[in-house]
Amino acid sequence: MLYWDESLATGIAVVDEDHRGLFGLIKVIDDAKNSDVFGDKVCAAIEALNDYAHDHFRREEALMLLSGYIARTRHEDEHKSFSITMKRLLQLYQVSPNLVSISGVVVYLTDWLRGHIAYSDQAYVNSMRECGQLIDIASQNLLNNIDLNF
Ligand SMILES: [Fe+2]
Ligand SMILES: [Fe+2]
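Above are the sequence and the fe (ii) ion SMILES. Below is the predicted complex in structure-token form.
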């Protein structure tokens, strides 16, 4: 499924808003593949997703640090590994677009994001809830700095 839904909610405003945005950008990649003769739209859409994922990971990592989440390093490694995969994918697509199935990429991205949110992101929720108001305030401040116009 290409959309965020309530089953993925963490209850942390900035995180849920980011996750909605990430699914929205995967949909942009999916839409671009149908109308893209030269590959420019797909490249731009993948770059936009990379940029937004980078920002989201930094916000999430700041909240994990603030809450003292014990498995933060392992979680950050998952973010890093995803970013490396995406960078390589973009490079490959720019050089040899015919070697990359964008439909396959969309399936990979959707599966990765759903799995990561459902298991790795949900795993820090209790730790953040224990911090109560501190995380609420930080989350709200981060949310105020997000540019949601993409
Ligand atoms: Fe994460
Ligand atoms: Fe996340």
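The two ends are 21 Å apart (CA to CA).
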